[in-house]
Structure prediction request, 167 residues.
Amino acid sequence: MIKNLALYCIDVVMVLLLIALYLSLMYFTKIEVINATYTMQGGKSQAFEHPLKIRTDAKELIVEMDILLPKLHSNHLHIVPDDCLTALWVNDSLVVLDKEICWQRGASVNLKQYLRSGENHLKASITDKGGYARFKIMPSLQTDPLYLVPTILLVIGIFFYGYFRLR
Prediction:
């Protein structure tokens, strides 16, 4: 009985440590958005807090923002425009997109050659078909090795821990 209780406590501590590791990775690699503005066709720039969500009838919208990245940062960013992203510039370099990025799910984009630690300037051109115009950018948890490697190691660790615990 005491042996089972001790094993249960070890299990709980292991799970809590793994969760703490993953959450700390998420916290220390997050991006901070500052100086975010949008401009509608022929209009003046207006500041907004990220993520952007405004009601508009404009057909085209330009979104600009600075993103602050820590030394250890994601190079894959998940972008969700509404309706579609027509062009993206990072630090004044045009990003060549290999697929159309639209609002349903957005897409993860590898920006390794454009991003650097510290402040990065991002400019996006968005087409909008009416209703709400939106723009959201965040680290991509699904495609970035920064997140995939710890996740895979976590799964392997849990497997081996369970394997040796059951022996």
